[in-house]
Design goal:
- With about 350 residues, this protein is mainly α.
- The chain has one domain.
- About 75% of the residues lie in helices and about 0% in strands.
- The chain has 14 helices and no strands.
- Helix 4 packs parallel to helix 6.
């Protein structure tokens, strides 16, 4: 196709993608969280814990517990999940591969920094960001940049940081930033170092020819959207149901007897990494547990490990990264949670 014809078409497709991202994020994230910040400031709360409500323990494992959690979680995230699928498929249908490569394809720290900074306005939960990460990897984004984008959506979420400060105290926000920033950019850089130009993280699919009409673009976008939804959503729902059912086993009866012992810090760091929550869900969870007498160390471990990754989001990205890379990321998140728990216990945070 002649460049003179291709350039305006690319400009229109880029404009459509940017407009979708801005309008979608404004409706799903920016405007609701703006109002929620005032609620957090005035009431020092953003709602009940989705994990166990006001009770000291989650309901016993059952189908009712599974469905109850899945419905509550789905109600909280469905709009963001649809937006994530639209953006993830839109990257592949609307944006030329070389544009993504230029911005996020480098194997140095620059692409990691770009990926982490691009994540900040996204403010998505780990599972809703996963389809966007799939789209970025399909369009040749470097693995480290994609990881920084994935982790940055939750860990560097400015709304959650504000909620944390108003609800839990600004010392908790500082702890999260002090460990979260190195986690996002450090893990991204580490993942890039694990990959080489001759040994890619995964075998990426061959790129399709660039669409030649807007009707072709629309058909391609719809096809990719349906393919992503069919592949990602079923496994996602199954794991969410499973976690909702067994959450009483993952999170014990909370009370003053769970103090700053190493066992509890490690156990809750691991449970927090595996479990799935909506955006900012960790704030009321930690608030409720602290009110029930949980030690500051385990609370800090949860605050740092609940948001960045989860078992469902790791499964959703199973074809975008090698298994050993996902295991390394999950292990590093647990390690950061343990370090944060140790610091909180040492500093006497509560």
């Amino acid at each position: 196709m002649p460049a003179a014809v291709l350039s305006p078409a690319r400009t229109v497709r880029w404009s459509v993608f940017v407009l979708l991202a801005i309008a979608g994020l404004f409706y799903v994230k920016w405007y609701p969280y703006y109002g929620r910040a005032f609620v957090a400031a005035s009431q020092h709360s953003i709602g009940h814990s989705i994990l166990m409500g006001d009770a000291p323990s989650a309901p016993a494992p059952s189908w009712s517990a599974a469905l109850g959690y899945a419905l509550a979680y789905g109600k909280a995230i469905w709009q963001a999940m649809v937006l994530g699928l639209l953006l993830g498929s839109g990257i592949q249908a609307l944006l030329p591969v070389n544009w993504v490569q230029r911005a996020l394809g480098g194997r140095g720290f620059g692409s990691v920094l770009a990926g982490g900074l691009l994540a900040i306005p996204g403010m998505m939960c780990t599972c809703c960001a996963a389809p966007v990460v799939v789209g970025l990897r399909r369009h040749q984004a470097a693995p480290g940049a994609a990881v920084a984008f994935w982790l940055g959506n939750t860990t560097l979420n400015p709304a959650t940081l504000v909620f944390t400060g108003f609800v839990l105290g600004w010392h908790w926000t500082l702890l999260r930033l002090a460990l979260g920033v190195p986690m996002v950019f450090g893990l991204g850089y580490l993942v890039n170092r694990m990959a080489t130009a001759t040994t890619p993280m995964v075998e990426l699919p061959p790129q399709e020819a660039e669409p030649r009409s807007f009707a072709e673009v629309a058909r391609r976008w719809l096809r990719i959207f349906v393919q992503m939804a069919v592949r990602l959503i079923p496994e996602y729902l199954v794991i969410v149901l499973l976690l909702g059912a067994v959450r009483a086993w993952m999170f014990p009866h909370v009370g003053p007897d769970i103090g700053n012992e190493w066992f509890w810090i490690v156990a809750l760091a691991l449970a927090g990494m595996l479990f799935v929550i909506p955006t900012a869900g960790e704030v009321p969870i930690v608030q409720a547990m602290l009110a029930l007498g949980l030690g500051g160390g385990p609370a800090a471990a949860l605050l740092l490990t609940l948001p960045p990754v989860s078992l469902p989001s790791l499964a959703m990205l199973g074809r975008s990264f090698r298994v050993r890379t996902l295991v390394a990321i999950a292990s590093a998140v647990v390690g950061v949670g343990i370090l944060g728990g140790a610091l909180a216990a040492w500093l006497g945070m509560h």
